[in-house]
Amino acid sequence: MTHPNICVISNPTSGNNRKWQTRIEERLARYDHVRHHVTRSPQEAEALVPDLAAMQPDVVVINGGDGTIAAALGMILDHWVPDRLPLIIVLPGGTANMTAGDIGTASSHRRALKRFFAWLDRGAPLDGDIRERHIMRVDGAADGQVRYGMFMGTGAIMQATKFAHSEVHSRGLGGEISLGMILIRSVWGLIRQDPKFYQPTHVRMRMTGAGGAQVSRDEAPMLILVASTLERLFLGIRPFWSSEKAPIGLTTIRGGAARFARAFPSVLRGHPNRHVTAENGYESFRAGQIALRFEGELNLDGELFASSGPDVPLVITAEGPLRFLRPR
Question: Where is each DAGKc domain found (predicted)?
Fold first, then answer.
């Protein structure tokens, strides 16, 4: 029986992998057609990917958190021949695992590993559930570094991220349960306009749609700004409702948005109720490219970094798509 060539990239320092890495390595060693590479830093991954591109595996398996997945996908786009991109399998080896919740093998690490190894035992058929997603390339950060990711946010997203690091993930909590806790606490803080969470960021925006049409917004205080190429965020959240056809969803809520407590649940579902209007401070777009001008920090798949300020645009461009295999 002919097996596809499979490469597994693992980050042993990611949240879930700290408990499972030894067992994963022992199990993968049983399969002659699987090559397992352990990378403990972005530099190790960067050095590995060109060699993998030359070997042209049929499937690349990324076993890590959202940041590891984003970095690996960016390197694949940088180094692979565009018309010979491999299939990608995502295992939720990190703490939050939002990306894996949308395109991964399963949201639970234990369940994902069980399904993945069962797939290997069946000969690794390539006829499973295949989904296409783009990845966002981000240029214009203060440090000059180009980044990739599938979820980005600022405004209250930053306050929620800092709360997560100090109060939730630092206690060893992870997965969608921890994200649900963070969401509940953050929304409560926003409803009460608690200054720990209610800190709008002044942003000027320009969006370019699939057909080249541009939409601009003057500088305004943004309570929440979130962009993603994922269809589903954690807990089934789908906060984008524009009917335009473009790969990046972008939703903004202005500071002082009216009827926030009544509007926000429908924003999370992507089905706006009568309170969710541009006049009330709620907008959703779809774009192939987004340019933001602001002073502050962003969260890109769990990595925090600073913008270059209001004079230099932070440019988010959709690249891909990549094909993600979810083994049955």
Answer: 1-97
Among residues 127, 149, 179, the one where a domain terminates is 127
Q: What is the pTM of this model?
A: 0.91
Contacting residues for 264 by C-beta, under 8 A, at least 6 apart:
187, 190, 253
Asked if the peptide bond before residue 247 counts as cis, ω within 30 degrees of 0, the response is no
Burial class (CB in 10 A: 0-12, 13-18, 19+), 162: middle
Look-up of token digits 């789908």: 238
**CA-based nearest residue to 315, from 223, 227, 213:** 227
**Does residue 50 lie within any of the structural domains?**
yes
The predicted-structure confidence for 171-199, as pLDDT tens digits, reads as follows 666 667 777 888 888 999 999 999 989 99
pLDDT score recorded for residue 278: 97
User: What gap in Å lies between CA 234 and CA 115, rounded to an integer?
Assistant: 21
Say which DSSP state 128 is in.
S
Phi, then psi, of 60 in degrees rounded to 5: -110, 125
297 lies in the same domain as 188: yes
Residue whose C-alpha is closest to residue 69's, from 103, 36, 43: 103
Residue 36 burial (10 A CB sphere; 0-12, 13-18, 19+): middle
Q: Which domain does 173 fall in, by range?
A: 138-320
